[in-house]
Write a structure and sequence with these properties.
This protein is 7% helix and 30% strand. By secondary structure, the protein is mainly beta. It has one domain (1-61). The protein has a three-stranded antiparallel sheet with strand order 1-2-3. It starts with 19 loop residues before the first strand and ends in an 11-residue tail after the last helix.
Length: 69
């Protein structure tokens, strides 16, 4: 979702098919790579914290998502 005007940039599910509770945040790695950080789960449901490259999100491909960065 665009922070400037609220329109949906890309719509897709999360990797573990859980609810999303953590609003996506954009970070820039020291090498200039843009990363999207987002979380799943909830108060009573387990989940994970995920990171994926923004370029992959824009392509609609989050198969390279990682929980270890």
């Amino acid at each position: 979702m665009s922070g400037s005007d609220g329109h949906v940039i890309k719509w897709m599910g999360v990797p573990d098919d859980k609810e999303s509770y953590y609003s996506p945040q954009l970070y820039t790695w020291p090498d200039g790579t843009k990363l999207v950080l987002f979380g799943t789960g909830g108060e009573t449901h387990g989940g994970s914290l995920w990171v994926v490259k923004l370029v992959d999100v824009m392509k609609g491909d989050i198969t390279q998502v990682d929980t270890k960065l």
